[in-house]
Amino acid sequence: MENTENYSKDLLRTGVIEAKAGNIDTARRYLDRAIYMTGSYDVLAEAWFWMGKISTDPVEKRKALENCLAHDMRHVRARRELAILD
Fold first, then answer.
1. How many CB atoms lie within 10 A of CB 85?
2. What is the pLDDT of residues 9-32, one digit of tens each?
3. Any alpha helices (H) in the chain, and if so which ranges?
4. Which of the residues 10, 59, 63, 84 has an alpha carbon 20 to 30 A from that of 1?
């Protein structure tokens, strides 16, 4: 389990780097994999947050941010992004 958690954190980290670099398709693949692989609520919340950040579709963005908050109700950046959407 420990190796899987480290692997999912690496996937998340790489996905965030790709998102910040503007490589949206690559970022999405890494984030999808991190979401699929992890059992950690922290990793899930952060991966969903970044999925929301890279989404251009408002409906998809909202769903990703809501998924983030489902795993971490106190995720401040996700709350801010949702407020901007509203």
1. 12
2. 999 999 999 999 999 999 999 999
3. 2-21, 24-37, 41-54, 58-71, 76-85
4. 63
40 contacts 21 by C-beta, under 8 angstroms:
no
How many Å apart are CA 85 and CA 43, to the nearest integer? 23
- Cα 8 from chain centroid (whole Å): 12
Both tokens of residue 2? 């420990």
Q: Distance between CA atoms of 21 and 43, rounded to whole angstroms?
A: 20
Cα atoms in the Cβ-side hemisphere of radius 13 Å centred on 69: 17
Q: What is the pTM of this model?
A: 0.94
Buried residues in 35-46 as b, exposed as e (16+ CB within 10 A)? bebbebeebbbb
